[in-house]
Amino acid sequence: MRKFIDFILSALCMGSFFLLLVIFHPIQWIAYETIGEKAQRRVVEILNFFLVGTLLYIFSKISFTFVERPPLDRRIIFVANHQSMHDIPALIWFLRKYKPVFVSKISLGKGIPSISYNLQKSGAALIDRKDGKQAIREIVRMAEQVVEKKQATLIFPEGTRAKTEQLLPFMTGGIAALVKKIPNAWIVPIAISGNATMNPKGLFPLKSGQNLSWTVLPGFSTDQLNATEICQKVESQINNYRQLLHQK
By three-state DSSP, how is residue 76 classified? Predict the structure, then answer.
């Protein structure tokens, strides 16, 4: 019975999710072509507010917490673990003041309503994980852009979605490229929990009634730290926080 209910609720959730992507695609286009980049970004923020809301169809309990608010006057690199496509709408909505630009896989850059258009227009780094040189070039290009436009950037150093609550190994190449091109960056770890349990099949069906949390942890300077040390510190902070979370 539980599986049947989850199937119905998942259909409502995902149907609403993809309908919103279709509806907002032309709105994004009109905003960008008639007003400009800021208007298009605002449309994307509103879209992602509603995308977060689709999780209420499956009775998810949503928590987005700032243990420490990142400074608005620093060059910020958000570093998060990755569990599901549902990680992203909450990050875009709740971090909107920081205007994060994402490192994303190249396959998302075409063919997906709203998502592909936003990745292209935001200047996201669309990387081919099988082509290391192309990936680094894209990340460097994006890093130069975010410095010029005073934006933040967000990277998932695991490189792919974890299917469980266990962190996958962090890859250092992307962070090394960002740190090299964004001097005096402020690294901000984000611990994501619950989405792997809610989304065990990768897309459909979803599990209802799960506790989903995004926690922005205290940041730190990149001064005198290399990419390996940065990844180790972020992993440690995320793991320590999640252990505390599961003890509650």
Answer: strand
